[in-house]
Model the fold of this input.
Amino acid sequence: MKLLLLFAAALLAAQGALAGPLRNDHPIVGTWRFELPDGSCHEMYRIRADGSALITSAAEIAESEFQIDDQPDSDGFYHSNDKIVKDNGKKDCTGEVTEVGHVIQSFIVFHPSNNMFLMCQKRDMGSCIGPFIRVRGTEI
Done:
């Protein structure tokens, strides 16, 4: 999760709660797995249509509220803001503890299958991490 938080350092901070309902068929709704490039750790993101998410990363368990565009822009990017609202205070895959209140602004781009996405700092493919892979058969 700390990898995602690195993006937020240079980006705007949002005010107040971010959560908002999404349509049930929004491509972000579901469970996603991100594995560190060296394979040493993975993170799970359970993203719900009510605008909340449960995130696990190593010993860390966090909850967030988020907003994401209903449709992509002309280049295929969805703008997203994600605010950490609860954290168990344990270390994530990078050995850090995520701060409650931290806001992450990102741009999400989906593979045509909607079973993978990249999370980008800017609206360009050169600033992305991923892939986040959809996990089937899990409860969100």
